[in-house]
Amino acid sequence: MTTETLKVQGMSCAHCVQAVEGSVGELKGVSDVTVHLEKGTVDVAYDRDVTSHEDIVEAIDDQGYDVEQ
């Protein structure tokens, strides 16, 4: 299991939290996702054999938020 903390720009409300946690949480291999709105970060625990960092970034990007690389 891999755990990453991603810096995400543009999140500002409960809807943002719901959108990001929902889209990332639906990815196969993701076991936990937590948005920290005040810090602008997202913690993700996932299985690298099932999903990738790029898949997670794409899921967040698809919701309209920018992940700092």
TrEMBL record:
Protein location: Cytoplasm
GO biological process: copper ion transport
Tagged with keyword Cytoplasm: yes
The keyword Cell division is assigned to this record: no
Entries under InterPro entries matching the protein: CopZ, Cu-bd, Heavy-metal-associated_CS, HMA_Cu_ion-bd, HMA_dom, HMA_dom_sf
Keywords: Chaperone, Copper, Cytoplasm, Metal-binding
NCBIfam families listed in its UniProt record: chaper_CopZ_Bs, copper ion binding protein
Protein name per UniProt: Copper chaperone CopZ
